[in-house]
């Protein structure tokens, strides 16, 4: 998944090592199903069979079903059918080998999440048109949530998958976990702090990955004027009104997907969306304006 995963169990017992190994194993298993960067992944095999109802594993089916629900709720601000467009923008290299992936799918006219059909009874997925799914904002969160279920008997633990966090129970001092929200314009600094217990925290930021080969200067970056890895699928361009969007939710898959959707929707509409979805969130603009849901509006 192109990220470092760490797990901290506060009160381990003799069986903790086995549980932690199982938790780490879910990241590999889910990546093997859901990545678009490996030729033999289940997702790539699905993309190679447009127009055909393809039987899928429970992992891939659940990831796609969830992604489509968020797409519907967000009015298409979040859309998992952007894989081919992300390839065209240069986001097509496997993180370990550097190999470029060029899928055969050529969507032609604009595709959307409505071009994906699910059959829950048969657990099949049909791509109604040639397209490539991108589950980057879903799969890592799903892996974090599945790993958390392996560790929940320890009660107090933390999982960090490259900024996708799940904080179980209490920290070693017996208090809710303290989570820093990364400053979108100062490397190594936090712009806000959250106290969480049995919740996930995920952030989408314009600083994470720039378009490969782009040479935007710092002033353009700070003003939100350059292209990055978050795509507004409705206009085929990077949103420029948000620097980072952070969501606190019961699970990481939900938090990650909603953070991406809120980023695309923009500060005011993004916060209204998070309030409607029943989660807490913070949005910072390129000039560091702060927008917050009702539960975080008085937290500084």
CATH architectural designation of the domain at 163-296: Roll
Q: What is the percent of helical residues? A: 25-40%
**Can you identify the CATH superfamily of the domain at 163-296?**
ApbE-like domains
Shape: globular
Strand content: 15-25%
Distance between the ends: 32 Å
Structural class based on helices, strands and sheet pairing: alpha+beta
Please mark out the parts with pLDDT under 50 across 5 or more consecutive residues, or reply none.
214-225
The average pLDDT score comes to 88
Please count the helical segments.
Answer: 8
Number of strands: 12
* Biggest sheet statistics: 7 strands, antiparallel
CATH fold-level topology of the domain at 163-296:
T-fold
Gyration radius, in Å: 19 Å
What is the CATH class of the domain at 163-296? Answer: Alpha Beta
Give the strand order of the largest sheet, numbering strands 1, 2, ... along the chain: 1-5-6-9-10-11-12
Draw up the topology in text.
Elements: E1 5-9, H1 16-34, H2 42-47, E2 54-55, H3 58-73, H4 83-88, E3 116-119, E4 124-127, H5 136-151, E5 157-161, E6 164-168, E7 177-182, E8 190-196, E9 199-205, H6 218-222, E10 244-249, H7 252-265, H8 267-277, E11 280-284, E12 290-292
Antiparallel strand pairs: 1-5, 2-4, 3-4, 5-6, 6-9, 7-8, 9-10, 10-11, 11-12
Helix pairs in contact: 1-5, 3-5, 5-7, 7-8
